[in-house]
Amino acid sequence: MIDTSMKNVRAVIFGLRQFNREHEWVVGNAADLIDALAAENEKLRSVLEWYAEQTRLCRLIHSGGDPGRQALSDDGGKRAQAALSTTKED
Fold this sequence. Notes:
The protein is mainly α. It has helices spanning 6-58, 66-75, 78-89.
């Protein structure tokens, strides 16, 4: 038999409200974390795409590969280091 006394009903309502507040906090924080991870993923993907394109160019034996080789030489890994350093700081 279910206790339907006013005291019990109030306790149940209080518990549900408390649960709802905690649940909203968890969902809100999870959404913020997902957004931050998606932004970080996009940043890292952009850096990887740049390196992929430059290395593709480097493989060209003729002068068409010069821009890629020059870009990688000029970069010296700075883009990767910058992307990784911001990842470690967060």
